[in-house]
Specification:
It contains 13 helices and 15 strands. By secondary structure, it is an alpha/beta fold. The longest helix has 16 residues.
Length: 421
């Protein structure tokens, strides 16, 4: 039997018996919404195309899915969970009743593979989940989209040059960042995660980049099998295209584009303000995802474009751009890079974390600039302008099709699952 959830309208299954086919059960904060939610959907679609049954359990926000959706908890649950962790620094240790019901669903479905994505974001109790998982022989694959699983608090320690995750987190210097909290129990959180996650014998870890894999090998999960599978992009949706409305926004301009879902300090806003002082009169910076209310504070040559989930509009923006830049303090992957490639646009990135591994040297898909050096980035931008951004387009598109197409990347997950059965 199937019903629609009151909140999202997404199709959700009630309890069903095991089917005569291998079954994949994924868990993530969202389903087919947001970057990781879409990756979850892509994996589910590939599983279905190979004759698998596919379930996705999610905590909040879902769009229509090819998989059977299971909502974890009520609409109120994430808010109660957030309120508790905001005070007590216990992210992932609330939502006990919701997680207990999820475990009963897993027992009834009896999946062959459990695929974990983001377990934080205020919707799940990882202690209960892993106590159950550790009592079963179900293979678990956990994709590390960030580092929350191996730290006592934070998602990404690079911006503070913190390496406490290697030996044992304590007195976290990032408690004011996501997930924000007043109390600091990073030492207890770290010990509990190490105890629970380290006890799962058939746990396989997926890193979304070689850089993430290198960091994980220095964590308490370093003795686990670590596989590198890049995030995939829908190359049919992200493609070279022209939208007259988008083109008319920047007539006669050389466009330097950057995109982020949230423009935090870590994304490098200060660097774009610095670069704006270097630009020629016919050059502009376009920041996608920036709240328009900040536009009045920006220099005349920086244009703010609101956050959008419209893939066609994003593809048109990437296609209109002459170059896409990434000046973040750190990125675990760099989705804007491969989306730009799919639209035939070259990139310039800082020499830090994961993005440099995405840049092809021969034939060039862009350039790696000196870390935290805006002058180096702008020099690479001028190099692309001198050569003509169109001269990079074919190479970028071919690179996206060859290495980052969603079907190829999802297929690597299914090959891993099949090897574990």
């Amino acid at each position: 039997r199937r019903r629609k959830t009151a909140l999202t309208g997404a199709v959700t299954d009630t309890l069903q018996p095991r089917q005569d086919m291998p079954v994949l059960f994924q868990i993530n904060a969202t389903a087919n919404r947001g970057a990781i939610g879409k990756i979850t959907e892509i994996i589910g679609e590939e599983a279905i195309s190979r004759g698998w049954g596919s379930y996705i359990a999610y905590g909040r926000d879902a769009c229509d899915s090819a998989s059977r959706l299971i909502r974890i908890g009520s609409r109120l649950n994430p808010y109660l969970h957030y309120a508790s962790q905001r005070v007590l620094d216990n992210e992932g240790l609330c939502s006990g009743r919701a997680t207990a019901r999820l475990i009963e669903r897993i027992k009834a479905i009896r999946p062959d593979i459990i695929q974990l994505h983001d377990l934080h974001d205020h919707y799940l109790n990882y202690r209960l989940l892993f106590e159950f998982l550790n009592s079963t022989n179900i293979p678990v694959v956990w994709t590390m989209h960030d580092f929350w699983a191996v730290t006592g608090h934070c998602m990404n320690f690079v911006s503070r040059n913190c390496d406490r995750f290697k030996t044992g987190c304590h007195d976290c210097p990032m408690r004011g960042e996501y997930p924000k909290t007043f109390f600091n129990r990073s030492a207890q959180n770290y010990k509990l995660k190490k105890q629970l996650f380290g006890a799962k014998g058939n746990l396989h870890v997926v890193a979304v980049s070689r850089w993430v894999a290198d960091q994980l090998r220095e964590s308490f999960l370093g003795d686990r099998p670590i596989h590198v599978i890049a995030n995939g992009v829908d190359t049919a949706a992200f493609r070279p295209c022209d939208d007259p409305q988008i083109s008319s926004m920047f007539p006669g301009k050389f466009v330097i584009l950057a995109a982020a879902s949230q423009w935090t300090e870590r994304k490098g806003m200060k660097h774009y303000l610095r670069m704006s002082e270097m630009l020629a009169d016919d050059e502009i910076i376009v920041l996608v995802g920036l709240n328009p209310r900040f536009a009045k504070r920006l220099p005349h040559n920086i244009i703010a474009v609101p956050h959008t989930t419209d893939t066609e509009k994003l593809a048109a923006l990437y296609s209109r751009a002459d170059v896409v830049t990434v000046m973040s303090a750190a990125e675990t992957f760099g989705m804007t890079v491969v989306e730009a490639y799919a639209c035939g646009t070259p990139v310039v990135v800082f020499d830090n974390s994961a993005p440099p591994s995405l840049v092809n040297a021969d034939p060039p898909s862009g350039y790696v600039a000196e870390n935290q050096n805006v002058e180096s980035v702008y020099a690479a931008v001028k190099k692309i302008r001198h050569a003509g951004s169109g001269s990079y387009g074919r190479h970028c598109r071919e690179l996206a099709l060859r290495k980052y197409d969603k079907t190829i990347c999802a297929g690597r997950y299914l090959s891993l699952y099949e090897s574990l059965l």
